[in-house]
Automatic annotation (TrEMBL):
Keyword line: Hydrolase, Magnesium, Metal-binding
Database matches in PANTHER family: INORGANIC PYROPHOSPHATASE
InterPro entries found in the cross-reference section: Pyrophosphatase, Pyrophosphatase_sf
Catalysis performed (reactions): diphosphate + H2O = 2 phosphate + H(+)
Pfam families per UniProt: Pyrophosphatase
Cofactor: Mg(2+)
MF term (GO), any: inorganic diphosphate phosphatase activity
Superkingdom of the organism of origin: Eukaryota
Annotated GO biological process: phosphate-containing compound metabolic process
Family: Belongs to the PPase family.
Protein name: inorganic diphosphatase
UniProt xrefs under Gene3D superfamilies: Inorganic pyrophosphatase
Amino acid sequence: MWRSNNNNLIVITIKNVVFRYGLKDVTNDKVPSQQGNQGIQVKLKLIRCDALLVNDIHVVDATDNSSNAAASPFFKPQSLSRCFSNAKLVSKKRGFACSALYRPDVQIKEEGLPETLDYRVFFVDNSGKKVSPWHDIPLHVGDGAFNFIVEIPKETSAKMEVATDEVYTPIKQDTKKGKLRYYPYNINWNYGLLPQTWEDPSFANPEVDGAFGDNDPVDVVEIGESRGNVGQLMKVKPLGCLAMIDEGELDWKIIAISLDDPRASLVNDVDDVEKHFPGTLTAIRDWFRDYKIPDGKPANNFGLGNKAANKEYALKVITETNESWAKLVKRSTPAGELSLV
């Protein structure tokens, strides 16, 4: 066991599993011995948790008055999120933890044929069980990076998206009046979503003209040179964001780059994008502003002065939408037709 210089932080390492907890006190910081096949039980008075690597681990609910609350199961490595409230570890139907420092072991499973109405890209764990890319893949991967799920690979036009109203939220091609939808021209970047985020349609953002969320996960525009595949999981770092307003709804676009891109180390904020990817920010804004015009719809608008906000603002957006998602899956916010499985 190692205690940091910060009296409110304790780091515990058990068989290469690292826990970093914020504590109200450290009077009960000993870790009990492993209990049969139930995994490790950690009894601490939690007020926050920065990171967690888990594999069949049970963490005891912590409250202000007792350290002997009933255990909340972390039944799958995919079921991880940042969702503590009032110093209590929250558990409804899904087991919750904090930011996860690992890449989940998931694969994609296609059903149906591409460019048909029945085509679906499901995500399965290593046991073959279907999981939700929106709910079960963790947002955080550590060191300021995030998981990004590719829906639309660069230089393609099929409008693929996570089906937020279907069980296990597979990726499918969007439709309108029973017909498959395509963009009028190829998108020039990898496009997709941040898991475990949600733009709350009941929240009017005072910083963006009072626009309400679009009821979807947060979108990502990944500017790296490699073309992804539908359902591919990338580790990305955010660089900035655009506040697109689509028919009155706020639709954030996080601008990010894959950590595997050869120029990833050169860009760490929005100003670096202009320096090393000149013209890209303007091109992204113009593409999303104009893509509906060929269908006879008006151009989209942008808040925040019609410019890309910096990395700090993008991180704020990610944090707020992650918190909105946590309320959604805890059923503190009405889900409507959204699938929480």
